Amino acid sequence: MLVNSSQSVSLTLPLRLLAAVALAAVGLLATGLQAQTFSITDPTASSAGNYTWAPLLSASGGYLLDPANDQQTGQTADDYVSSASNPGFFMRYGQINGVDSVAFRLMENTLTTDNKGNPSFTGQASIGLDTTGDGAIDIVFTVIGKNSNNGINYQAPGSGTNDSPNTTTLGTPTLISAFNASNFSYTAVNSTNYPGWTQVGTDPDAMLTFSLSFASLNAALNAVGKPSITTSTLVRFIAFTSTQTNAINQDVYGSTGISGATRFDAPGGGFTDYTDPTGKPRPTPEPATGAAVGVLLAAGLMVRHRRRSRADEASADDVG
To answer: CB-side exposure of 4: number of CA atoms within 13 Å?
Structure first.
């Protein structure tokens, strides 16, 4: 069968249309990923109770929550807390001082202070990431306030399976950045920074927040032998506290202490649901996206119909 030049042009036009629609669909998706400016001291929620930071969710749906007083060592300053109406694990993505950054926020049972009564972080809190979906920790970001590694660090998991507290070991912390006013905050929880929060126990509760640039996050991943991620990569997060840098031995957020986390990806094991680095949970198609997909399908069907029509015409000409 021969196809003349006019037929080639006719077939090319729908393909050009298909490409144009595809580009438009990509544009629709990309619009929502533009980073907004924020600060690590921004309130967790508005005065109306709407969260401005993204609460991390459990795999079964709903907020990922953590019981009080379930830390291993009895030190309430290292005990993560929440309640049914007050989640205690958040993240946020945007620009801090013009740099694309990701930040994490956690509530702890007791605020530690110096001899003048000022908030003073002297503990160790970590966020682990499963970037490959295999149920194991691929990298850990740790804030340390008690030794020469004070600041924001990354750690490589050990050679074990790294899928529970008992099977996880951690390498020596590598400092990413010392604490400063733009990347770290440790303060009492109050009605301004967390409207609606209900205090746990009699001691003031603590709000711990830290951030790192998205470029630093990916550089750390590459340094431990893992590929970079994008703002659309689905990741699972886990938060824990420790008294030492090479193990998990205090509290796992979302689990009943250390003993409850038999596997991080089991129910009550500590892993969040799959979430992208901007804090958005597993995506669902939006109306605009659905419409774009519909147009793509229609354009594809039109191409197929035209090709069949041309083929039928050519066959009729050959028979004639």
So the answer is: 4
For residue 155, what is the enclosing H or E element? strand 151-155
Tokens of 165: 């507290």
CA distance 141 to 144: 10
- The phi and psi torsions of 112 (rounded to 5 degrees) equal -95, 145
Q: What is the pLDDT of residues 253-290, one digit of tens each?
A: 999 888 777 899 999 999 999 999 999 997 655 555 45
SS3 assignment, position 157? strand
Give the side-chain half-sphere CA count within 13 A for 75. Answer: 14
51-71 residue pLDDT tens: 999 999 999 889 999 999 999
Q: Which of 45, 199, 238 is nearest to 108 (CA)?
A: 199
Query: Is there a contact between 242 and 253 (Cβ–Cβ < 8 Å)?
Result: no
Distance separating the N- and C-terminal Cα atoms of the chain:
13
Torsion angle (degrees, nearest 10) of CA 6, 8, 13, 14: 130
Extract the tokens encoding 81: 């807390």
Q: What are the start-end ranges of the H helices in the chain?
A: 5-31, 214-223, 287-319
List the single range of 148-152, 185-189, 309-313 with lowest mean pLDDT.
309-313
Q: How many residues does the chain have?
A: 320
